[in-house]
Amino acid sequence: MIEGHGDDIYLHSDLRCNFSSNISPLIDTGPLRQYLATRLDVIGHYPEPEARSLEVKIAAERGVSPEEVLVTNGATDAIYLIAQTLRHERTFATGHPTFSEYADACRMFGYEEAPKGGAVRWLCNPNNPTGEVRTTDTVKVLSRRHHWLVIDQSYEDYTYEPLLTAQEALALENVIVIHSMTKRFAIPGLRLGYVIAPSAVIDRLRANSRPWAVNALAIEAGHWLFDNGIPYYHELMSTLFAETYHLRNRLRSIFGIHVYPTCTNFMLCSIKQSSAAELKAYLLDCHDFLIRDASNFEGLKPCHFRISTQAPEFNDELVAAIREYVYHK
């Protein structure tokens, strides 16, 4: 894992707004926290060695068999577990720019990168940091070009674009899909994700997974969220996307700021007169705002940064602050 992932809030105190995190600011985790406060007794006991009870609930929601689901300690845990399990394939491919953990995990287990023809193709869809979404037809073509296609759909709830359903992915037989409850329900500190894949693949992943990989409180949270949280979450998305459209257009009005197209709540930008690092420092020092310096994504340059939509009043302040920086640079 490299240093410099977004949401490095632990390095900064007294932030007013964190634009570096891609997680929706509209999700109220208060009811979940209230519930977990009544279940703290579970930390005095070992959790399930494998979160089978939660897998049953996920399978029912996704319309698949429990044998086609594996709960993991967040999406990143799934990435490393998949890389370990498929390590005999030896070569991998990713698109650039994209999330660095795919390449990091593969290199950890001895793969070599083969950009055009890796046996294991990793696809972040929607993609981080660009917000691009590949069509389902494109995804199906990719599945025919590689021995394995691993799709990270962590941001699936942050787009209106159609993505592969669980049934479509399973029908392709060589597709492994990663899902993130972290993003869906704004619980990054709990680390909760899952994989959907053919049962034979899940068996292989399970053979390499660690016992008690998912802690008891996270399992409790998962049960509560699938019982109570999903309808509430979806009601918020139209508000988030409308605000994203507004923020993107206002940023585009600033001379020297380029905003790339996006299908999600976050957007990749570049600054002409300065660097992302300098802009980040200014926003921290003068406004207590944190953005994501995206220059360490492979394929990007020092001018690139990423921001995620926040509450309207903070979005307006961010636009004013960036305009102030650009015009006084």
> Helix content range of the residues, please?
40-55%
Distance between the termini: 34 Å
Give the overall silhouette: globular
> Which whole number gives the mean pLDDT?
94
Helix segment tally? 13
List the helices and strands and how they pair.
Layout: E1 17-18, H1 30-37, H2 52-62, E2 69-72, H3 75-85, E3 91-94, H4 101-108, E4 112-113, E5 120-124, H5 136-145, E6 148-152, H6 166-172, E7 175-180, H7 181-185, E8 193-196, H8 199-208, H9 216-228, H10 230-235, H11 237-252, E9 257-259, E10 266-271, H12 276-287, E11 289-290, E12 292-293, E13 304-308, H13 312-327
Parallel strand pairs: 1-11, 3-4, 3-5, 5-6, 6-7
Antiparallel strand pairs: 2-8, 7-8, 9-10, 10-13, 12-13
Helix pairs in contact: 2-9, 3-4, 11-13, 12-13
Characterization of the model:
It is a single chain. The chain is of the alpha/beta class and 329 residues long. It is 40% helix and 15% strand. It has 13 helices and 13 strands. Helix 4 (101-108) links the parallel strand 3 (91-94) and strand 4. The chain starts with 16 loop residues before the first strand and ends with a helix.
